[in-house]
Amino acid sequence: MCKNLMLLGLLFSVNVLAATPQELLKQYEAQAKQENPAFSGFSASNGASFFKAEHAHSSGQKVSCSTCHTTDPRNQGKTRANKVIEPMAIIANPQRFTDAAKVEKWFGRNCKDVLERACTAQEKGDYLQYLVTVK
Amino acid sequence: MKKWMQFLILMTSITSTSALLASGGIDGGGGNAMPPATNAKWKTECSGCHMLYHPGLLPERSWNKMMNGLDKHFGENATLDAATRDEIKRFLVANSAEKSTNRRSNRIDQSIPSDATPLRITETRYFTSKHDEVSPLTFKRKNIGSAANCIACHKNAEKGDFSESQIRIPR
Question: For chain A: N or C, fewer Cβ within 10 A?
Answer without folding.
Answer: N
